[in-house]
Amino acid sequence: MGNGKDGGRAVLRAPVAAQTWRELAYLVVGLPLSTVYFTLAVTGVALGAGLLVTFVGVPVLAGVLAMCRGFGQVERARVRGMLRVPLADPAPVLAAGSGPLAGMGALLKSGSAWRHALYSVIHLPWAVFAFTTALVLWSTGWSMLLYPLWFWVFPAFTDQPGLAVFQNETYVFYLDSPVAIAATAAIGLVLTLATPWVVRALTTADRVLVSGLLGRSRLDDRLSELESDRGAVVDTAAADLRRIERDLHDGAQARLVALAMDLGLAKEKLTEDPQAAARMVDEAHGEVKIALQELRDLARGIHPAVLTDRGLDAALSSVASRCAVPVRVEVDLPARPAAAIEGIAYFTVSELLQNVSKHAGARGASVEVWKSGTRLLIRVADDGRGGADASGGSGLAGLAERLDAVDGVFVVDSPVGEGTVVTAELPWRSTGS
């Protein structure tokens, strides 16, 4: 019931609402601007195309495209200011080299610049239609609505009793009777109330046209996304290299240095105190075993041999066996995915199971991996305390960035007290594809 009242009030307020006046002004101003755009763009493109038989046509066309991009800036500013639409700028035109020739070449090869030129040409017919429709409906509606206030002009200053709406050789129909005046005002009220919605529909078409031709294209968004993903991948790779370097320096390397020193001391004592030397060699043997185990763990963290040799099923079963809680593993894949996808899936499950061991307080967990269409799906669930946070800065956020870099999806469902379910999707790429 309340929605009906709110809708009725919105209809009654529409003719005097600020949004309506902004949209009407947008359409009215659009016609002269489009006339300028059309004239300059068509003249410039025709001139540049005609001069292409000489080198002069190239800079002329490049200049026209740069001018049309300037028109686009004006139109985007109008859309943002008058229609209150947050419209992103297109990607800048980047030249492959330096100098004016590289800049002209970049403009001529820019799809965005040519879309701006296309907008400058095709918008004029629409601007004429929108301008005419909006102005005729607006002026007619208000004139008819207010007719009872100004119809007296005709008998006072002309020989007519009212506005003549029909005339032939024998008959003239004037809007002069009370019924005719009231009917005129009623029709004017309907037009006045309907015009804002017609204007809104016209500006909606303008918004679509501007966002489609002058806004940021899907390709621009995809390039920005890939650049962001590339940065995330580079940062992740650098962090992994620093971790490996730190593990080598603080672990196996330090242990091997100590081992070398111990063996040197044992060598010196070999002739003086053979028993002490034998004890030192025995201790060094134990250190060698520990160092080898650390190197195996480090190699497993880089890329485990079991994953390369036997695939995800065996590798994930190995990871699950080291988890602090019992883990059920189900892998149902028709074939092995590409090595890169297989590696990302392995490390995703490995890190999630580490989180289960350290933070979940769970009694059990499950890992499911299967193929659905062109996607590799991973589901890791536990019955722990829940409340896992995938916001920025957490390990889960790092996993999400890593998957996003390969067009993956990462979803965390972790209500407090009800366990955690993490679902990940990766693009399926077969080995050798």
Which features would summarize this protein structure in a list?
Heat Shock Protein 90, 3 domains, five-stranded mixed beta sheet, two-stranded antiparallel sheet, 14 helices, 68% helix, elongated
Write the layout of secondary structure elements.
Elements: H1 2-13, H2 18-50, H3 57-82, H4 100-109, H5 111-145, H6 147-150, H7 153-157, E1 163-167, E2 172-175, H8 178-213, H9 218-272, H10 274-302, H11 305-310, H12 312-321, E3 327-332, H13 339-360, E4 365-372, E5 375-382, H14 395-404, E6 409-413, E7 420-427
Parallel strand pairs: 3-4
Antiparallel strand pairs: 1-2, 4-5, 5-7, 6-7
How would you sum up this structure, described in words?
Strands 3-4-5-7-6 form a 5-stranded mixed β-sheet. Helix 13 links the parallel strand 3 and strand 4. It has 3 domains: 212 residues, no CATH class; 84 residues, Up-down Bundle (Single alpha-helices involved in coiled-coils or other helix-helix interfaces), CATH 1.20.5; 119 residues, Histidine kinase-like ATPase, C-terminal domain (Heat Shock Protein 90), CATH 3.30.565. The chain has 433 residues and is an alpha+beta fold. Helix 3 packs across helix 5. The protein is elongated and about 140 Å long. It is 68% helix and 10% strand.
Summarize the structure.
The chain has 433 residues and is of the alpha+beta class.
| Share of residues in strands | 5-15%
Order of strands, widest sheet: 3-4-5-7-6
Instruction: Please give the largest β-sheet.
Output: 5 strands, mixed
State the end-to-end distance. 59 Å
Please estimate the helix content.
55-70%
| Rg from alpha-carbon coordinates | 37 Å
Note poorly predicted spans: none
Determine the number of helices (DSSP H or I, runs of at least 4 residues). 14
The average pLDDT is: 81
Structural class: alpha+beta
Task: Please state the oligomeric state of the protein chains shown.
Answer: single chain
Domain unit count: 3
Strand/helix succession:
HHHHHHHEEHHHHHEHEEHEE
Could you give the count of β-strands?
Answer: 7
Shape designation: elongated
